[in-house]
Amino acid sequence: MENKKSILCIGAGYVGGPTMAMIAAKCPDYTVTVADINADRIARWNSDSLPIYEPGLYDVVKQARGRNLFFTTDVEQGIRNAYLIFVSVNTPTKTFGAGAGKAADLQYWEKCARLIAETADSTKIVVEKSTLPVRAAEAIHRILQSNPRGIEFHVLSNPEFLAEGTAIRDLENPDRVLIGSMTVPDSHEAMQTLVDLYAHWVPRERILTTNVWSSEMSKLVSNAMLAQRISSINSISALCERTGADVSEVSRAVSMDSRIGSKFLRPGVGFGGSCFKKDILNLVYLCEQYNLDAVAKYWEQVVLMNDYQERRFAERIVKAMFNTLSGKRIALFGFAFKADTGDTRESPAIYISRMLIEEHAKLAIHDPQALPNARLDMKGYEDCIEYCEDPYEAARGAHAIAIITDWHAFTELDYQRLYDSMEKPAFLFDGRNILDHRKLFEIGFEVYPLGKAKLSHMVHSR
Ligand SMILES: NC(=O)c1ccc[n+]([C@@H]2O[C@H](COP(=O)([O-])OP(=O)(O)OC[C@H]3O[C@@H](n4cnc5c(N)ncnc54)[C@H](O)[C@@H]3O)[C@@H](O)[C@H]2O)c1
Fold this sequence. Notes:
By secondary structure, the protein is of the alpha/beta class. It is built from 17 helices and 14 strands. The chain folds into two domains: 6-202, NAD(P)-binding Rossmann-like Domain (Rossmann fold), CATH 3.40.50; 213-462, NAD(P)-binding Rossmann-like Domain (Rossmann fold), CATH 3.40.50.
């Protein structure tokens, strides 16, 4: 008989790894195995150099690894041993066939479901941890139930709301844990199993139980609404630059309204990450499938506004630097899509870099954690890019510095020293508004904050 306290997670990525490490740390009475087909990733989870950078993650992994947390490539054995199977594989945007560019590509998920159906020899609870389109649970349940041995499966939706960079804090103290279950017999018991697991450390009132469709939908809507706030304030940053308003002041005034609140209202070069764009496009595709064209267009605009913001930032650099970047060195500070992560998936840095290279700029890219991923993203552009571990080396001889990621470390650099080593006029484009612009101006920089007037030493400059 299966051990009801045995957990498997298929997919040892940004979600599977940290989530399972937290469950193992908080639930020492459970055995947690994380399996992945990527042997290199598994080897790194078993080493001191984890495959992802996340503050606090190493300590949590160390606490449980070898005790009740295991990483393996043997997915089949993991399936046989487990009672609760989380599936946390990637669900990228489809690049081919029907729905290309919008719909979620469910091939990795379906492969896992089929493998579970083929391999399992006893009842299992299969948990959707990946972000999936609404009604995916139904299809998954059908695949699982089609196993010829008559084994029973329960499917639950348990979307993950962690944010990279703060994953450990989010997992330890979540705003809510959402569990959706189907209305088939016995699913209540399955749901209770998952509730009991989280109740080891999450207050019961923060564990929400819903029907499975609401759960799947809530994840897409949460991401769409967060991204919508970013696109909203970014759209206003463009208007501020034209009108003389200061977007930081506007954002502050607006966010002091308790009905609106302050989070996700900071302007920037655009949102990135593997989820926002993909999940909104997934929502757009769903709307189109149900002939809700006005709703689809409404949400699609959030993504279009983000593309606009990335393009606008690059175009502002070109325009400010006398409409030519040919042969000019530009130091990009930050390549990760946000601070405190090495993840560069869908990072605005990728698009901005490509646009600057099209203008024949030479880039010097510095990031405290993301250089290995940046190298992969920018493969083929080696002639135009230097990767620098040291920000001072990146800025040496540069005509401009562009802040792309809001790493705190960038606020602590010696800007006088950076300025002294640069070509003049030395430009600084603060794509995150994290620096002291007045001070930079006094040092001698031509300062271009986002969504507010530039600070320029040039006479007649507008
Ligand atoms: N990254 C985030 O911040 C975040 C937050 C919430 C939800 N999500 C969702 O969680 C899911 C996973 O995201 P991620 O960022 O962890 O992805 P990821 O790409 O980092 O990890 C997915 C892992 O699944 C593995 N995998 C794929 N197919 C497999 C198979 N058949 N058998 C075993 N392993 C397999 C891959 O090798 C990879 O290591 C996605 O649906 C995503 O939308 C992500």
